[in-house]
Here is the input.
Amino acid sequence: MIRYLPHNQIDKAQWDRCVGEAVNSLVYGYSWYLDLVSPGWDALVEDDYRSVFPLTQNRKALILYLAQPFFTQQLGVFTTGLLTQELVTRFLDAIPSKYKLVEIHLNGFNKVDPSRFDITPRKNHELELIYPYEDISRRYSQNAKRNIRKAKEAGVEVVRRVSADELISLFKNNFGQQEGKLKYRNYLTIEKIIAHCVKHASGILMGAGNRDGKLDAGTFFLMDRTRFILLLGASNFSTRSNGAMFLLLDAFIREHAGRPALLDFEGGNDPNLGRFYKSFGARETTFPFVRISRIPFYKQMRRI
Here is the structure.
C-alpha cells in the first residue's frame, strides 16, 4: 500500500535506511539533502518504507505543484524491493490530486510507461573510473588532450585549497550572470550543500589558475558511495580558452582512476556540454522527465 505523508509525519531514519539500501540509491534522495533543496518536502511511502518517493513541492499563486529542485538531477522511486515499471506507475498514480502540475525528473532506473505518461528523456554523462589512468586518458579526444597541454604551457596549476565562496562567486559572475536562472536563495542552497559535505568529508573542492591567485576554473564534487557527482563547475569567461577546466578534470580523473566508481558529470542536454563531457570518454545515459497536468491552462503553467 502506498501512503501519502506530509513532511512532519515522515520517519527520516526509516526513509534514509530505504534510500541507502535501495539498488538505485542516490545521494539526492536522502532526507538531509531534500531538507536543503526542498524544505518541507512531502512523501509517498510503500508499506513500512519498502519504497519511497519524495514530493518536492512548490506553490505559485494558488497552485500547488511538484517541480525538480535545483542541484537535484534525479529523484523518483527508491526501493529495497523489485524496481519495476508497474511500481513506478503505481507511485505516479498515487501523487495526490492537490498537485495540479507535476514536472519532475525520475532516476535512470525508473522505467515509465509511455502510453500512460508524458515523458521526455534527459541526458547525463558518466565516466567509469575503474580503469587505470593511462587507459582512461588514452580515450580522451584530441581536443581534450590539446587543451590540457595548452593549460600546462600557459602555467595553469591545480589548486587544492579552494573555498565555497570562491567557487560560487566564480560561477555567479560568469555563467550564472549570463543565464540568470539561479536566484539568491539558490546560491544559499548550494552553499549549504557544500558546507554540509565538507563538514562530513563527502565533498571535494578543486580549482585551477595561474600563480596570481585568481581562479580560472573551479569544481565541487559530491561524493556518493561509488559515484563522484560534478555538482558545480565554473569557468572565468575571460580566460576560459586557456584550458583550465580541462586540466582540472584531468587532474581529478588522474587522482581517482583505478577505483570502482563513476564520475557523474550531471548533465548533457546542452550539445556543447555533451561534447565536452564526451571528450573525456564519458558515455551518455538517460533518465525520464515526467509531466502530469491536472489543470486546463497547462501551457501557461509550464512557464513556472
User: Anything to note?
Assistant: The chain is about 35% helix and 30% strand. The two ends are 32 Å apart (CA to CA). The longest helix spans residues 164-179. The longest strand covers residues 118-128.
